[in-house]
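Input/output pair, single chain:
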Amino acid sequence: SLRVELQVLPEMPGSAASDVATLVAPDFFCTTPYAQLVHFPRYLRAVKLRLEKARKNPAKDAERQAQLAPYERALKQLRAAHAPLPARGNEGARAPGASPAVEAFRWLVEEFRVSLFAQELGTAEPVSTVKLDRALAALKVGGGSTAAAPAGSKGPAAPAARPIVAVPVA
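Output:
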């Protein structure tokens, strides 16, 4: 109901409409971890509060959007770089989602959005520009994968094992 409330607003700015569309994409039940679903009402209430505050002070909203923009761009680039390829021989099907580290960064960005635009709603975990910068640096250094070289080892990490793919036999 919150999503519908936001979608029917006639004066909804493009960035807020984009936020809602990204947050509640048509396949969000398939792509959203179950643990994150509980946070969606808060994320949508944050968008609604942002719109109310933006009407009163558009300059402050633009300033906060400028703080958020670098992380949104970085997330978009990371998702493009770590986009899953379709399963072999199944070009229309989607492979499992992006890297867990990239998805964790995505939820940090959502929490940062709440802390910027609707601080009174609170965040699920403490988040700041410092935390986002560290997470982004770790993703860029680690390549967004969860596999890393063991501590004290020299040279590159061994490649991650490829998952076993089971195909039904007709």
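The two ends are 44 Å apart (CA to CA). The mean pLDDT is 76.
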